[in-house]
Structure of GTP-binding protein:
Amino acid sequence: MTDKKSNLSGANACGRVPVTILTGFLGSGKTTLLNALTARPDMAGVAVFINEFGDVGIDHHLVERVDDTLVILESGCLCCTVQGDLIGALMRLHKRMSRREISPVSRVLIETTGLADPAPVVRALMEDRLVSARFRCDGVLTVVDTERARAQIARHREARVQVSLADRLLLSKCDLASRAERTAVERELEALNPAAVRLALRHGEADPQVLFGGGLYVSGQAPAAVTGWLSGQRNAAKSVFHCEPHSGRVSSFVVTLEEATGWRGFAVTMGEILSRWAGRLLRVKGLVSVAGLDQPVAVQCVDSAVYAPLRLAAWPTSGPLMDRQGRLVFIGEDLDAHVEADIRARLVALPGDREALRRAAVAGLPTRTWLGERMPLTPRPGLVSDAFIIQPRVLGEMPARI
């Protein structure tokens, strides 16, 4: 039991408490799953936050375990009016733990309303300094009603966004859908979010060991299944993966970075891409081969907010990523062929360090914090030797003397 609880907590990445976001469209089965999870002994150390839409909260009466670690955020939706309430509730939870008024919390589970966009919730966890110093986003779980998913995705943007932002797609009510319908739903989900792991719930239940740990911030080390985290790259024989949606306006594509990239040029270019298509790019995640590093660097963006980059221990030794080429999965709305071509062109023509720092002076660049990472300077032509790696100590022009 001790080992299970330790694994479940996902501890301990820089001492921060992991936060899992549970979302899904109206009637998908979130509360059923939450009831099943809170009844488990290995979930005893998990704090549950329930968000409700409307003036009177009623959903929490359906949750069987109500105690000091269950917080109700009422009269608003987490994606809009109560973000401040969420931040305040997390900070109060931390203070109560610090004062030993409650037992240490191993994980926070946030259930959003069926009409919530998860992106602002993730942004709140990433961008608020007080919260991000104490909590970390550990992944988004989206419950999908297999019987009604296709109709919901076709009619409601919220359903499309919830699916697109998921790290885990949890298929509910599979027994009520025909085999043909389930196959069609699987194709729909593959089109909207090829990188998400899909799991079938059994009578509304699932093993927490399988549900949690959907991102790369599970521990201080990279997970063994890094290829699964970036599973949008399905075919190792192809350098480009593109998937068109069957309905809705959400699509995805993968950009392969065949050469090692200069970090500063990449950081600034990604910031410009996020700014240029703000509101249309839902999520970007991938591995980058940085010039001067043997290890890959994982990056992840939600909307125009960015996670801190994570330097992994090593490249995978099997699967499509064993070629040590960087790959970025882009998921967004209205990303037509012209937008995709523009993004690909920008990532091919990355600026050098000096030009990148000049362009970084633009106010509001989303990836400005990435420039503070300790990364090698980009090797320049004429500064390469078979025997040595030569790095200039300043960013100005330096003559090559080899």
Observations:
- Residues 83-98 form the longest helix (16 residues).
- The first strand starts at residue 17 and ends at 24.
- The CA atoms of residues 386 and 402 lie 10 Å apart.
- The two ends are 61 Å apart (CA to CA).
